[in-house]
Design brief:
transmembrane helix, membrane, two-stranded antiparallel sheet, five-stranded mixed beta sheet
């Protein structure tokens, strides 16, 4: 018998590896046979082996990426699918589909693409797995009561008045970088209501807001670029290194604040046990203080969970409201006649110089409708994703378990099927009698269902306070001529590709 030489051994090993590889491929596809069957029944663009339809998004800048998504949705009248590598995405925008998905018990999970925010947000409400989200939401819900939100209005008003002082040197400036100014305003309001600290970003600019914005931009960029999904590629890239640096700096700040709140709470507990009277320095409790209280009362939240929620509130509360306020100022500038009507309402409610109070907000009806119509045309979360934990029957198609669902609210909000003359700006669309005529899921500025935005009321109250204060003092103009002229780009939230192009003119 001949002995096997090294070459024979190598051939045998190669044969085993090839056969094993082929068996793995066969087994992989056999286990996915149900998925393939369901996917085959849903229309969608043809793709390529291995990469699927990834070329639609690959190497696109933020503007081209937005345009590609819009074009893709315009080619289909309802449910359709795309392949991102081996992962199917089911794309929806019809209100009937949105209602099913956003309320389905097996569709509460966020897509794994949101994991890219976890180095900063951790398992906060925005990105937490369903089991953690359910527990935390139940604990935090009482914190968002109306009494607490009302106690924040004086802070909103104070910061808005500071904004007016800061803006004096920018009056009449063309193509003003309004986003940076409004972001500083929101950052100061959010930091004081969430963490109880005066950040003074408006008067003594610091880079906390810039770092937060930069970190979120990188996280969203990574979600749409498959090569950066691989940790070994992302970690050595300039984006991965920059993201880690930004998150480290941000976490140092929020961790220090939370540690201080924990220390203060413990000292106050000891003082009360000793019969001492604790003098309250503020008329309200911040979100971080309420979370610390939950931690000490029942130990159901860890220190890390508190930091995750504080970080989430900072990110969500700053960028979302800043973007919407800026878009609202833009639409005000595009419609000077309507702007004057809003101004008249503000003067009728507030007078010439009184600060905004909680009682005033309910009387600023036209202003609120103006904000809502702005959020229809420029929804802050134009696209978001959910994961199906089980098969989801949409009536005209089935989303298989483990598939990702891409929701495009922009396609819903600007659709002629649901909105007459959809690009026309008309705040009266949100009169009660008009709202009653529409499917409730035609309009989703804060998502909807059990996992809808918990801070929606906070956002509306903050935005109304800020806008009322600004519009009483300034008239807004813009270089844009129409809604159609405002091209958009995909950021963590939607942004105008060419900036907001706003100027503030002092009223006399």
């Amino acid at each position: 018998m001949e002995k096997s030489g090294p070459l024979d051994v190598l051939k045998s090993l190669s044969f085993i590896l090839v056969v094993s590889g082929l068996l793995w491929i066969v087994l992989y596809h056999w286990r996915r046979r149900k998925l393939y069957k369901l996917v085959s029944k849903v229309p969608g663009p043809s793709g390529y082996p291995i990469i699927g339809n990834a070329l639609i998004f690959l190497f696109k800048d933020q503007v081209d990426l937005y345009d590609s998504i819009v074009k893709l949705y315009s080619n289909y009248s309802g449910l359709f699918k795309i392949w991102m590598g081996s992962e199917p995405f089911f794309c929806i925008y019809k209100p009937e589909h949105l209602e099913i998905v956003l309320n389905h018990r097996q569709c509460l999970a966020k897509s794994t693409h949101y994991d890219f925010t976890k180095p900063f947000m951790g398992n906060g409400l925005f990105s937490a797995p369903v089991n953690i989200w359910k527990k935390t939401r139940k604990l935090i819900n009482p914190a968002f009561n109306q009494k607490l939100l009302d106690s924040f209005v004086p802070i909103f008003s104070e910061q808005a008045e500071i904004f007016l002082e800061v803006m004096k040197k920018n009056v009449g400036e063309e193509d003003l970088d309004i986003f940076a100014k409004i972001s500083a305003l929101q950052m100061d309001s959010v930091c004081e209501t969430v963490m109880g600290i005066k950040m003074t970003t408006q008067t003594s600019p610091n880079d906390f807001g810039n770092k937060l914005d930069g970190a979120m931009a990188i996280a969203w960029m990574r979600a749409f670029n498959i090569p950066y999904h691989f940790e070994f590629i992302y970690a050595i890239s300039k984006y991965g290194k920059e993201f880690n640096r930004l998150v480290s700096d941000l976490n140092k700040i929020t961790k220090a604040v939370i540690s201080e709140k924990m220390k203060n709470y413990e000292e106050n507990m000891i003082a009360r046990k000793n019969g001492e009277i604790i003098e309250e320095t503020r008329k309200f409790k911040t979100f971080s203080e309420l979370l610390v209280q939950l931690y000490h009362e029942d130990k159901q939240m860890s220190e890390q969970q508190i930091q995750d929620e504080v970080n989430t509130l900072l990110a969500a509360g700053t960028d979302t409201s800043t973007t919407t306020i800026c878009f609202t100022l833009l639409t005000l500038g595009l419609h000077p006649e309507l702007q004057e009507k809003v101004y008249e309402e503000i003067i009728n409610v507030l007078g010439e110089d009184r600060v905004v109070t909680k009682q005033d907000l309910q009387h600023l009806d036209l202003l609120e409708r103006f904000i809502k119509e702005t959020m229809r045309l420029f929804p802050i979360a134009g696209f978001f994703m959910r994961k199906a934990d089980d098969d989801i029957d949409l009536g005209d198609g089935v989303v298989p378990a483990n598939a990702t669902i891409l929701i495009n609210t922009m396609a819903t909000h600007r659709n002629a099927k649901y909105w007459k003359d959809p690009l026309k700006f008309d705040p009266d669309r949100f009169l009660p009698e008009e709202v009653a005529k529409r499917h409730p899921y035609c309009y989703l500025p804060f998502s909807a269902g059990p996992r809808g935005c918990l801070g929606a009321r906070y956002a509306i109250m903050s935005m109304k306070t800020n806008l009322a204060t600004i519009l009483r003092k300034y008239r807004i103009t813009t270089d844009y001529k129409s809604i159609e002229e405002v091209s958009l780009k995909v950021h963590m939230l939607l942004r105008p590709a060419d900036g907001f192009k706003l100027s503030l003119v002092e009223r006399t």
